[in-house]
Amino acid sequence: MKKLLSIMLSLVMVMTVLTGCGDKKAENSSFFKEAAKMQEIKTGTADMEFRFNAKGTGISKDKEIPKQLKNGDNVALNVKVETTAESETKQAIKISAQYGMTEYAEVTTIVIDGTKLYVNVGALTDFIKSVDETIGKQVETVFGQLGAGRYISLDLKQVCQALNIEMPDMSKSTEELQNLTLKVMENLDKSFADIQGKDGDDYTLTVGSDNADKVAADLVKFCEDGSLKEVYTALMDWYVNIFGADTEMGKQFAEMKKDSTAQLDEAVKEVKENKDSIVSTLKDAKVNVVAKLNVTGDEGERVCKLSVDSGEIKDTDSDITGSVSFTSNLKEGKASIKELVPTEGVVDITAMVNMMLSQFGAAAGAQGTGLY
């Protein structure tokens, strides 16, 4: 069960992350060229739904799966994410889940309003209690000790100051992220040309047993031509620029970039050596993951529709089969988070968090001098 879930989640997550929205009318376009244009959409609303289903006799015997998720030899879980982007510094995300019930239950809502972060811990506690009463009560006790109400809030700027780092400039961050995305998509487009296609108005990306040899060959190409290392290096540079090269966090990411060179070389070597294993895994599991992307409308009012479907995948170590699907609808335009910013039952835990950070820093400093 764990192996099957790992395969399905990995495939769908990779294909979802690599997907974005763009203008269908672009000439000489491709899946990844369209995906690169996702960063052009700054404001609007989106709803995403993730569905997981599995069946097999091994499920009823698996004690690690919460009983609320199981129905005999079947398990099903749906997760819905609704996002609202008013601007780069005003955004909200509501997460809901559906399991063993006909309706979605809110897991939590997270809102960023300028430098303020709000989290609905009341909904989170209720959700955990509905899955596991004992753990839910433990979480409820922890939040109670913090003095938390229905919501907690945190001033991100003050926390950054306590950590002695600069509050990231979101406009700068967004621009640099867009440049990073373009670089990533250019490399992916170059390396994975063999598994991209078009189905009517949809641009497609396919990873499956039928094209397993092409997938493995393209993956080796992505690693071998330096694209993987280039993408990783660009990502580390982005983090350094966001936090500042002279800050502690910036220095840590710069060090990670330096230290990971040998590890990346080893990863590339392993991919090349295990090419045949990648092919056999895709074929044995009967994988057929297809991502489809469709965009309509003019700039400022674009509508993006994305779907990723794994098809039925078989666990090679048991009789369990399962499927994962992901759908997303994004509407570009003006949006507001005003109604989502909590005004009652909010407890600000900034001072408490800063005090904990201060004590942690003092303890670490004392340990470094040999006082502990």
Quick take:
With 372 residues, this protein is an alpha+beta fold. It has helices at 2-17, 31-35, 57-61, 121-131, 133-145, 156-162, 170-191, 212-224, 227-243, 248-259, 261-273, 275-284, 350-368, and strands at 44-55, 70-71, 74-87, 90-98, 105-113, 116-120, 151-155, 196-199, 202-208, 288-296, 303-309, 313-314, 321-332, 346-348.
Detailed description of the structure:
With 372 residues, the protein is of the alpha+beta class. The protein contains 13 helices and 14 strands. Helix 7 runs antiparallel to helix 9, helix 8 packs antiparallel against helix 12 (275-284) and helix 9 packs antiparallel against helix 10 (248-259). Strands 1, 2, 3, 4, 5, 6, 7, 8, 9, 10, 11, 12, 13 and 14 form a 14-stranded mixed β-sheet that branches. Helices cover 44% and strands 27% of the residues. 24% of the residues are buried.
Strand content: 25-35%
Structural class: alpha+beta
How many E strands? 14
Largest sheet: 14 strands, mixed
Radius of gyration: 23 Å
Total of helices: 13
**Share of residues in helices:** 40-55%
Shape: globular
C-alpha end-to-end distance? 45 Å
Q: Helix-strand pattern, N to C?
A: HHEHEEEEEHHEHHEEHHHHHEEEEEH
Poorly predicted segments: 1-5, 18-26, 363-372
**Overall pLDDT score:** 81
